[in-house]
Structures are given as structure tokens and as C-alpha cells.
Amino acid sequence: MMAIHDHFAQWMYQHGRPNRLARILNRISALQFSSGMFAPRNWVTLEVLGRRSGKPVTFPLVVADHLGERYLVSMLGTTSNWVANVRADGGHAVIHHGTREKILLKEVDVGARAPILRRYLAVAPGARPHMAVDRRAPLCDFERVAAQYPVFRVTHDPSLPAKLSHCGW
């Protein structure tokens, strides 16, 4: 049975896109996550270049840790704007949480996503209403939906300063 909060969360992201209220709340969350104040370590703001505008775009995300690595997951699936922007820019991005970290996001193969998705739902309760599997489901259920949710491994990006120097980063 879905809680009222879950229905509200789904309403804010109908059709896989944030509505006006969700965009406002995301801006507020992005400021909080970026500052690192009053936010757990795994709450971050991801900054990528917009694939159409070429301007930096930021949004709040939750980092999932798994087997000593860090991952970003798209709770809204493959049509999420941040996923398209990351893919268009070859995975180059910046994570903010008190400090700035230049990163390179590498997409995880569908066959390796299931345990990461399960860990993501354990650490990102706000994502639970948007994903087609329960956080307590067996791993095989996560395997069935893995292709619907892009997962990116977070790595250090030594090439970012030269590539984005024109943006003032």
C-alpha cells in the first residue's frame, strides 16, 4: 500500500519530469546539498553542461556506495535530463558537497546494476516511489528492472579542468 508521501512524490514527477513544485524543491535541495551543511555525505549536487544550452545545470542526487565504489542512479529512468546531459558530455561533471570534485561518470552495464540499485534504494528513500521494485525485493527483481534505470560509477576526472576552463570551473 502506497503512503500519501509516495503518491505526492509520484505526482511531482509525472511523466518522468519534475513539475513546477518539484523544480523549486530541487533548487532548494541543490543549495543545501551543495553546501554540505545539514546534509549527509552522500547527498550531493551534480553539475553538468546542458546538452542544448552548453550552460552548467545542477540538481540534487544521492550517491550510493557499493563495494567501495560510488554510484549515481537515475530514479526517473532513461529519459531523465541529467542522464542525457551526462551522456552528451562524455560523462564529465562536477559533484558539490561542501567542496567541488571533478568527476567522470562511467555507465554501468545492465548486468551489473542490480546490487547497486538495491543499495541505492536503501540510501535514497525519496527514490523509492519512482522505482518499479521494492527496496526489500530479492536481487532477481532488481535484475528484471535494471535496464530501466541508468547507473553511473563515479571516478576522478583529471581531464576536466582543461576541457571546461571556458566555463570558469
Descriptive report:
The protein has 169 residues and is an alpha+beta fold. Helices cover 32% and strands 26% of the residues. The protein has six helices and six strands, in the order ααβββαββααβα. The chain has helices at residues 4-12, 20-35, 81-88, 114-123, 139-145, 160-163, and strands at residues 43-49, 56-66, 69-73, 92-97, 99-107, 151-156. A six-stranded antiparallel barrel has the order 1-2-3-6-5-4. α4 (114-123) packs across α5. The chain is globular. The model is unreliable at 162-169 (pLDDT under 50).
Secondary structure topology:
Layout: H1 4-12, H2 20-35, E1 43-49, E2 56-66, E3 69-73, H3 81-88, E4 92-97, E5 99-107, H4 114-123, H5 139-145, E6 151-156, H6 160-163
Antiparallel strand pairs: 1-2, 1-4, 2-3, 3-6, 4-5, 5-6
Helix pairs in contact: 4-5
Short description:
The protein has 169 residues and is an alpha+beta fold. Helices cover 32% and strands 26% of the residues.
Question: Main traits of this protein?
Answer:
single chain; 169 residues; alpha+beta; 6-stranded antiparallel beta barrel; 6 helices; globular; disordered C terminus
**SS class:** alpha+beta
What integer is the average pLDDT? 83
Which range best describes the helical content: under 10%, 10-25%, 25-40%, 40-55%, 55-70% or over 70%?
25-40%
Number of strands: 6
What's the helix-strand series?
Answer: HHEEEHEEHHEH
Q: Extract low-pLDDT stretches.
A: 162-169
Largest sheet: 6 strands, antiparallel, barrel
Distance between the termini: 46 Å
Radius of gyration, Cα only, in angstroms?
Answer: 16 Å
Strand content: 25-35%
Shape: globular
